[in-house]
Amino acid sequence: MDKILSIVVPCFNEEKMIPIFFEKISNIELPLKKEYIFIDDGSSDSTLLELQKIVNGTKEQIRYISFSRNFGKEAAIYAGLSESKGDYVVLMDVDLQDPPEMLIDMYAHIEEGTYHCIGARRVTRKGEPFIRSYFARSFYKLINKISDIDIVDGARDFRMMRRQMVDSILEVKEYNRFSKGIFSWVGFNTLYLEYENHERAEGETTWSFWSLFKYSLQGIVAYSDVPLSIASYMGVISFVISILMMIFFMIRTIIFDNPTQGWTSLMVIILGLGGVQLLSLGILGKYVSQTYLETKRRPLYIVKQTERT
After folding, report:
1. Distance from CA of residue 297 to its chain's centroid?
2. Digit-coded pLDDT (tens) for 269-283
3. Helix (H) or strand (E) holding 304
4. How far apart (Å, rounded) are the C-alpha atoms in residues 80 and 36?
5. What span, in angstroms and rounded, lies between the C-alpha atoms of 39 and 79?
6. 297 — phi, psi (to 5°)?
């Protein structure tokens, strides 16, 4: 019986890229039967129409899921992995920043039997704004220091996985998902293939700096409790500073007979402690909000339409 390769492709407002992507990927020859699973993440353009054209215009096994609204890439990834039936599953973006030709090397390595996952890692960030690249590298350094997981700098969602690893990922039912962390948390032997950064073939990315920043915070909250300790550390530091300041002002008054007027120092202390308290409450609130969303048990996504309906 022929083995099956499931290719999962999340899409959001990618009407220009879909036909270009499908032409490229369909020309990649592998000794596997391929199935394509496109996830339309509530696009507001003609992404769904383009997917329907491909389904009707080819004999390839193509399926699509269209969400009722935009639920985010994490929900799209989970939906695609859930629908996949292949012995191997590939997760990749439609913008061709994930080079389809790498699938040949990925399959060759995964067939050796040593690895359960073959991932892709960018060794350069050519074409990205400097500030975005700087914060991305800083995020990887930070999360690897404060969490128990190891996320490779430059690692993409683009990867080929064995069915066993995919099933393990699907066992992680949490609502606030951070796939890069989940890929690492479930374990399994992973080999990363390095490549030079590829710019988008058409269109513009829908990931803004702010959305990437929020996504990184979600990852930190999901895989580290270190930020919760910041409040305690700042409380201790504030207490020590207050004791030192009290001693300083007592000595200044007794020895130099120079009583402190107090207004400026009082305002500085009040504002400083107020800022520390608000920051601590904000950190705590972030964890509480994540817990609140988990307890609601809302579905990760709602399907509006598939190729069968």
Report:
1. 21
2. 776 777 777 777 777
3. strand 303-306
4. 10
5. 8
6. 60, 40
**Rounded Cα distance, 185 and 135, in Å:** 23
pTM: 0.76
**Residue 296 token pair:** 């609601």
Of 46, 97, 90, nearest to 205 by C-alpha is: 97
In eight-state DSSP terms, residue 284 is H
Beta bridge partners of 122: 195
Q: 36 exposed, middle or buried (CB, 10 Å; 0-12, 13-18, 19+)?
A: buried
Token reading at 8: 């999962």
* Closest of 19, 226, 188 to residue 89, by C-alpha: 188
Residue written as token pair 């609204």: 69
Q: List C-alpha distances in Å: 196 to 99, 189, 249.
A: 10, 23, 60
**3-state class (DSSP) for residue 233:** helix
172-217 pLDDT, tens digit per residue, is 888 888 888 888 888 888 898 888 876 665 656 656 666 767 767 7
149, 181, 188, 148: which is closest to 166 by C-alpha?
Answer: 188
- 103/29 Cα distance (integer angstroms): 9
